[in-house]
Records
---
Amino acid sequence: MGRWELVVLGLACWLAVASAAKLGAVYTEGGFVEGVNKKLGLLGNYVDIFKGIPYAAAPKTLENPQRHPGWQGTLKAKDFKKRCLQATITQDSTYGKEDCLYLNIWVPQGRKEVSRNLPVMIWIYGGGFLVGSSQGANFLSNYLYDGEEIATRGNVIVVSFNYRVGPLGFLSTGDSNLPGNYGLRDQHMAIAWVKRNIAVFGGDPDNITIFGESAGGASVSLQTLSPYNKGLIKRAISQSGVALCPWAIQKNPLFWAKKIAEKVGCPLNDTGRMAKCLKITDPRALTLAYKMPLAGMEYPMLHYLGFLPVVDGDFLPSDPINLYANAADIDYIAGTNDMDGHVFASVEMPAINKDKRAITEEDFYKLVSGFTITKGPSGANATFDFYTKPWAQDSSQENKKKTVVHLETDILFLMPTEIAVAQHKTNAKSAKTYTYLFSQPSRMPTYPRWVGADHADDLQYVFGKPFATPLGYRPQDRTVSKAMIAYWTNFARTGDPNMGHSPVPTHWDPYTLESGNYLEINKKMDGSSMKQHLRTNYLQYWTVTYQALPTVTGEGATPTPPTGDSEATPTPPAGDSEATPAPPTGDSEATPAPPAGDSEATPAPTAGNSEVAQMPIVIGF
Ligand SMILES: *[C@@H]1O[C@H](CO)[C@@H](O)[C@H](O)[C@H]1NC(C)=O
Ligand SMILES: *[C@@H]1O[C@H](CO)[C@@H](O)[C@H](O)[C@H]1NC(C)=O
Ligand SMILES: *[C@@H]1O[C@H](CO)[C@@H](O)[C@H](O)[C@H]1NC(C)=O
C-alpha cells in the first residue's frame, strides 16, 4: 500500500471515529460499564447497546431482591445474561439461573454528539408469570424483544430486564413467612435502577414509560398501582393484560404453596416451617414441582395458573381495583387484540381451528361453565344464553367458533381492560387515558381465515420485526409496525401518542367514559379507525347482569389440578371484592351507539356526568 493510500485510509478512520457518537464506558452506581457501539447502515446513525448490567444482587431463593454491591474495574456488558430459572417447554427440565437480575439498554445516537434527555421505555415481558426473558425468543439471531428498532425509529432509550417467574418468582404462603411477589419486586428494582442511573446513558429520568404484554401488561398495571413506584413512572402501556384480569392475582396462594411443599417433602402444617424448608430446597426442584397441564383439563387453563402476584398488604396493599388513585398522574394506554382469547380457546376446544370439525352447544356450555363456577348453573345458563343469542340469526360453524373465541377474549382480556381503562380515567388527575383494539389478522397458516389478531401477535409489530427481518414480512406489515412504533414512542415522549418524533397515520383521540373512544390498529388506518364503545353490551352483561347473580362458591375457588392426588379444594380467604362499587356505566339510560362502532355494538350506556362517574366493579369469574 502506497503512502497516499495510507494517509487517505488514516483520514477516513479518523473521520469515522470523530463522527461516531458513542458513550464508551459509562459510570453507573455499581461501577463502569461498557457496551457495544453499532453503526446503522452506510450513512447511518449509531446505537449503543449494553447487555447484562446487574440491577440487583443475585437473589436468594424466595427472598426480596437486594441492591447490588457494585464492582471494580469496567464491566463488559456485551452479552445477554441467562434467563431466570424456569421450566423448559416440556416441563421436565429447567434452564436459566437463579442469578438473573440483569438488564439491557439500547441508546440511539446521532452522528455528531451523544444523545441527552431521551425518553425511556422499559419493557416487561409476558409468559404467564411462569416463563420468559428480557430478550425473548431467538429466531436467526434476531431476538423478539431486541430494542434496536424501537430505539432508533422512535429516538427513545429502550431497557429490558429479567425478573423471577414461576414458583421462584411468586410462591407465597399468604402470610409473612413467604409474602410472595418476588418477581414484582424484581420489576420494581429494575425500574428504580433505571430512575437512578439512566441519565448517564442519555436518558431523562423524569420521562420513564413502562410497557409490557400479557403477564407483562398486567405487571405494568400492577407496578403503576403499587405505592413502591411513587414518582418513578411517568407513563405506562398495557398490551393484552391488566391488573384486573382474572389470571393476574392469586387469591389462594397457600393452596399452591402446599402443592409444591408436598412435592419436595417440606412440612405442610406450619407455614413458618414450610417457608424455612422451601428456602433451602434446590431451586430447580421447586421449579419442576409445578406443571401446567396442557391437555385433559377439567377447567379452563386460567384456573391452573398457580404462581401469580398476590395482595400481600405491602407491595400491593389492597385489591388492585382499590389502588387506582396511585396511578392518577401516570398517563396510560391499555388495549387488547381482537382475538386475544384464540390461542386459549384452541387449547380448550381444538375443533375451532378445524374447518371440517363442528362444535356443539354442549361443548360451548361446558366451556362457559368452567368460567362461571362462582355463579353456579344459573351463571352458566345466563352466560350461555347471552352469548348464543346471535346464533338464532347465524347458526354457521364459523359464527359459533367466533363466539367461543370472543367469550375467552372478553373474560381473559377485553372486559378487564375496559374496566381498567374506565377506572384509570375515573381516578386520573393530570394523566391521560387511551385505549386501542389491535386487529391485524394472524398470519398463522394453520388457522382458519376468520381468525383475527391472536394473543401476542402485536409483539412483532411493536418490536419492528417487519423492518429487522424484512424478508419474512409484507409491506402492509411494515405499515402496521411503523404506526405502532410511532404511537408508542410519541406517547413515551409527550404523553400524547399523536405528538412527538414520528408522524402517525390518523389522530388517536383520548378515552373518556362518555365517548368510549378507542383506536383500531391494523394495516388500514384513517379517519374511520377511531371507534366508540367496544362491545358495551357485553360489558354491561358482565358488570351488571352477571354481577347481580348470587355467588354460589367463594370467589377465587381453586379447582384441584389434575395431579392425581385428591386434596380438597380449600376455601379461599374471605375476599371483599364482591363489595366493590357500582359499574362504570353510570345510570342506565341507554343511547344508541354511533354507527362507526363494530357491528355487534348495541345501545351504549351513557356514562352520565363524569364528575360523579362511579367506580367500576371487578367481575368475579
Ligand atoms: C419530560 O417530562 C417533562 C415533564 O413532563 C417535560 O416537561 C419534558 O418536556 C419531557 N422531556 C422530554 C424530552 O420530552
Ligand atoms: C405438623 O406435622 C408434624 C409431622 O407430621 C408434627 O410432628 C407436628 O406436630 C405438626 N404440627 C402441628 C402444629 O400440627
Ligand atoms: C339451566 O338450564 C338448564 C337447561 O335449560 C335447566 O335444565 C336448568 O334448570 C337451568 N339451571 C338454572 C339454575 O337455571
---
Amino acid sequence: MAPVVAHSLENLQPSVKALADTGVKTVPSIYVKDETDRPKVPYNAFSKEIPVIDIAGLIGERRSGIVADIGRACSEWGIFQIINHGVTKSLTERIRAEAFEFFAMPLEEKTVYAAKPGQFVGYANGSILTDEKYMDWRELITLRCFPIGSRNEDQWPRKPESFRGTLEEFSNSMLGLVRDLLGLISESLGQETQAVEKACAEGEEKVVMNYYPTCPQPDLTLGVKRHKDPGCLTVLLQDQVGGLQATKDDGLNWATVEPIEGALVVNLGDQLHAMSNGRYKSADHRAVVNSTATRMSIVVFYNPSPDCVVAPLPGLVDANHPALFEPYVYQHRHVKRMREHMEKSNA
Ligand SMILES: O=C(O)CCC(=O)C(=O)O
Ligand SMILES: [Fe+2]
C-alpha cells in the first residue's frame, strides 16, 4: 500500500494533466497496473451489445415497452444507454465546457478545492483515496448536490464564474431523470413506482467530474480501475472519445460503451443489486485511457441516505425467493472502506 498522504499542492504535483502537458513518454510506475489488471480492449473498439433504450414518451403508451426493455438490460448487464431523456443539449454542453475550463486551470487554482483529509469530496488526482496501491490516470472533483444541506459548497468551483449555477441546474435536471429511472426500474421489478426511491430514504446525489488526459502508454494503466459503484444508480454523461468498458462475465470479455451524441449511460450500483434481491446486476466496469484525445465524463451518483437500512424490497421476497441479503445500514457497509481510510489518515 502506498502511504496515506494529504491532497496538498505538494502531493498532487505533478497531476496527470501536468504529466500530459509536459509530454512525458512513459507512465510513472505509480500509475502502472499489475499485468492482470491492464486493459486488453482499446478505448475505441465500440460494442453494439450494450442496450440503447429510447425513453421518449415515458408517460404515454410507450411506458410498458420501456419498462420491459429496462428490466432486461438491468438483469443482463446492469448498464445501458438512454436517448430522448429530456436533459437538454444546451445544458450538457454548458456543464461540459465549464468542467473542461475548471480542469484546464493551473494546479494551484484547482488545489483550492482539494479534498480534505477524511472527507471524500473535492478535487483530487488519481483517486479521492490516497492509500491506493496504484494511481488511476485521471483528475477528478466530487461535488455533493442533494440534499441541499449536504453540499460541500466551499469546494464548488468559483471559476468559471457560471460553474455553480450550471452545476445547480444540471444536478436538478439529472435528479429528475434519476427519479424517473428509479420509477421505471421499480415497475420493471413488478413493484409500485415509488418502491426503490422510498427504499433509499432521503437519497443523496453527488456529481463527479472525471478528466482523463492523453496518456503515453494507455496499455499499462487505467483511467478508473475496475469497480462496481457502491450506491444505487449512476447516470453518466460521456463525450465522443470513448473509454468506458463493462463486463458481464466477470472480466472475461470487456465491452466498450459506444459514445452516442445526446445519450446518457445508466448503470446500477450495489444497492440496487441488493434491493432487487439479486435480480439486477451491479455493473462491473472501468475506464481506459488513450494516447490521442483527452476524455471527460460527468457522473451523477444517487445513493441511499447514510442511515438507510438497505434490504431486498419486501415484494420480491417470498417462500420461493428467500432474501439473499440481510438488512444493513448503508453507511456501515459501504462507507466502511472510507472510514478505515479516514482512521489511517487521522493517525
Ligand atoms: O468515466 C467513466 O466512463 C467511468 C467513471 C466511473 O465509473 C466512476 O466515476 O465511477
Ligand atoms: Fe463507476
